[in-house]
From TrEMBL:
This is N-formylglutamate amidohydrolase. Pfam families: FGase (PF05013). It comes from the Bacteria.
Length: 297
């Protein structure tokens, strides 16, 4: 398995395992993050697998990066992971490193952990439902630290720096974290195809989620707010509502744009990408109003 095949308009690629788009001009007070669509699997993890490699695809937000290709073409800034989530999860804190994943631990304090870590989906995923343990043996602590220093930390530092620039320029900044989800089980006959997450109002002013929900309902798209995906570490780390830096998560049902096996893009990719572009355009309109009102104060 290798990295993506050139379907996106490349702006700038670094050696840290992610790509940066449209950061130089930054004509909009918005930054899009796609942390789980990476399809670059380093040899070090493939050689340590105890499950068939194709099962790692279930960890991916498969081809979620292609959902924002039209937005990138319009100049919206973005940061997109190349490296697979199996290498290290960008939506987890370093405090969610599962000790069972590490050999050679020194006297450093061990992370506190979280429910997701204990369930096998920590900083380095340990197990998959229906597949069991992913790895033949733990990884060395120096290996894990290198992944953090050369990939996890630079990704988040890039987000922080860009949000600070946007906030300074426009008076407001919004991070939109794009994910995809397996089809949800219907509850009372309702099965959302899109879930908007703002950590129950903690990571963004309510107007952004409320307006997205209303627009999607008007378009006949089944949608939910915060259930079952309110957003995780990326929103917690980068949102600072008091400083007018907001962050929301958008989860898209994979059946909207992937084939029946949820592996390759389907005919629905274009229409789903159009929905994402419309949502981003709405957010930009709302942010413009916010920025203007701040300037007038």
């Amino acid at each position: 398995m290798t990295q993506a095949d050139g379907q996106l308009p490349l702006n700038r690629q670094n050696d840290c395992g992610f790509r940066l788009f449209n950061l130089e001009q930054a004509d909009f007070p918005i930054l899009v993050s796609v942390p789980h669509s990476g399809r670059d699997y380093p040899t070090a993890i493939l050689e340590n697998l105890r499950i068939p490699p194709h099962e790692l695809l279930r960890l991916e937000d498969r081809y979620a990066d292609r959902l924002i290709a039209p937005a990138l073409a319009q100049g919206i800034p973005a940061i997109i992971a190349n490296r697979a989530r199996a290498w290290i999860d960008l939506n987890r804190s370093v405090e969610e490193l599962d000790p069972a994943m590490v050999s050679g631990w020194d006297n450093s304090p061990r992370p506190v952990g979280s429910a997701k870590m204990r369930g096998g989906l920590g900083l380095v995923p340990r197990r998959l439902m229906q597949s069991g343990d992913i790895w033949k043996s733990p990884f060395g602590i120096s290996d894990i630290r290198q992944r953090i220093e050369t990939y996890h930390s630079p990704y988040h530092e890039s987000i922080s720096a860009q949000l600070a620039r946007l906030r300074d320029r426009f008076g407001v900044a919004l991070l939109v974290d794009i994910h995809s989800m397996p089809p949800l089980v219907p509850v009372a006959g309702h099965r959302p195809h899109i879930v908007i997450g703002d950590r129950f109002g903690q990571s963004a002013a309510s107007i952004y989620s409320e307006m997205l929900i209303e627009r999607l309902k008007q378009a006949g798209m089944p949608v939910a707010l915060n259930h079952p995906y309110p957003g995780d570490y990326i929103l917690r780390r980068h949102a600072d509502v008091r400083r007018n830096v907001h962050a929301i998560q958008i989860e898209i049902d994979r059946t909207l744009y992937l084939d029946s096996e949820l592996r390759e893009p389907s005919a629905g990719l274009e229409s789903t990408a159009a929905i994402i572009s419309e949502m981003l355009a709405l957010l930009i309109d709302l942010l413009g109003g916010t920025a203007m009102s701040l300037a007038a104060e």
